[in-house]
Specification:
alpha/beta, six-stranded mixed β-sheet, globular, binds adenosine-5'-triphosphate, binds magnesium ion
């Protein structure tokens, strides 16, 4: 799958601009604060309906403007697809796929798939379990609408259950909860099963990618800590019974203390917890390995690679790792952003250099032979 062009209107610092991309490696380059990350962000937004760095759509609208419009033309094995999103200050999105409006975010997912990585993804390893769950949720939602809808339903029931737990009338809680819990466990079964399968598949590939990037010096292992295994039904059944056991505690706490909203993943390098003992560079390599592994899972499931967006990643790696990274991504469409880069990292590979200046494309040129590669 690859994106051919991106159109931006009143998006961040872009007034109205179109950016063309090539298959393979693309580099959005230019000085600081010119709009490189903004363009990368727009692509991911068109894939998932959400920005990796702003939690409100209105922040994405060019200041002083009322509404923004972005669109992309992409090609996949199913043919060409165009995705357009218009949104306004009221955070209302209008989504169009091939010119037809769709009413749910779920209908947007899966049209163009991408994996996004930027330096703040380090929090995937460093920070709270919530960041790791978000990784699972974003990846799995792009891969499976049924996961996305199960998650929506789960969160809705969970919010209702938590509200009920705060009710002073304990007998009302005890009468009502079994109905909520049955539905909650059913959705949780789907979510946990999908996460277990995903991590089982991801883990050995992430290990491989990590060995590649780190030169094979360290072995990465991943562990999930949900404690629920087996089929969706097995998981739902076990969770339903654990919810019953946890009821007194949940009433005391006023929220639901078990379930997929509390899951975490542990990353071990040579048997040491990366979050606790890992260096900054090790944590970065683990996070990057996970994202590279994620592209392979897309391939395993859909026979097609997603678009890989690597924002500001090159500057954080030494030349040797930069070369390894380039070697590891040349088989899919990759969009790098970088203020500066050393062309020697591409050796004999072709790449497209797109210079962004103040929300405009200043130049867009493909370098295809080593001779041109100067
Ligand atoms: N809603 C908005 N309206 C107008 N301009 C915006 C908006 N949001 C961000 N900007 C501007 O976009 C610019 C930053 O763009 P971006 O993050 O893409 O920079 P960059 O080229 O990736 O730079 P760097 O190399 O520092 O990462 C800033 O000048 C910022 O003020
Ligand atoms: Mg940037």
């Amino acid at each position: 799958m690859h994106i051919k062009s991106l159109f931006l209107k009143n998006f961040r610092n872009y007034r109205e601009e179109e950016i063309s991309f090539s298959e393979g490696i693309n580099i959005l380059t230019g000085e600081n604060a010119q709009g490189k990350t903004n363009a990368a962000e727009a692509i991911f937004f068109l894939c998932t309906g959400y920005s990796p760095r702003a939690n409100k759509d209105r922040l994405l609208i060019k200041s002083g403007e009322e509404q923004a419009e972005i669109s992309a033309q992409a090609t996949s094995s199913y043919g060409d697809v165009s995705v357009k999103i218009k949104f306004n200050k009221a955070d209302k999105k209008n989504i169009f796929i091939n010119g037809m409006q769709v009413l749910k975010i779920g209908e947007l997912l899966g049209n163009i798939n991408s994996v996004f990585f930027n330096p703040s993804e380090l929090k995937l390893v460093q920070e709270s379990p919530e960041d790791r769950r978000r990784f699972l949720n974003v990846s799995l939602s792009q891969m499976s609408k049924s996961y996305f809808y199960a998650l929506l339903r789960y969160n809705k029931i969970l919010a209702q259950r938590n509200n009920l737990l705060k009710d002073p009338d304990v007998s009302l809680i005890k009468d009502t909860l079994p109905i909520w819990d049955e539905q909650l466990s059913k959705e949780a079964g789907k979510i946990i099963k999908a996460r277990n399968d995903f991590l089982l598949e991801l883990s050995p590939i992430a290990e491989e990618k990590h060995a590649l990037l780190s030169g094979g010096k360290e072995t990465l292992k991943m562990k999930t800590e949900s404690g629920y295994y087996g089929s969706e039904e097995d998981i739902a059944f076990a969770l339903f019974s654990d919810l019953k056991t946890a009821l007194e505690r949940d009433i005391r706490l006023g929220f639901t203390s078990i379930g997929p909203h509390r899951d975490d993943i542990k990353f071990m390098l040579n048997d040491m917890d990366v979050r606790v003992y890992g260096s900054q560079g090790q944590q970065r390599t683990v996070a990057l390995s996970l994202k590279l592994a994620e592209t392979e899972i897309f391939y395993n499931r859909f026979n097609e690679y997603p678009i890989l967006i690597l924002d500001d990643v090159l500057s954080e790696l030494d030349k040797k790792r930069q070369r390894k990274l380039v070697g590891a991504v040349e088989h899919l469409q990759t969009i790098f952003t970088a203020t500066a880069f050393d062309r020697t990292i591409f050796r004999d590979k072709s790449f497209t250099k797109i210079v962004i200046e103040n929300g405009k494309v200043k130049s867009n040129k493909k370098f295809s032979t080593p001779l041109e590669n100067k």
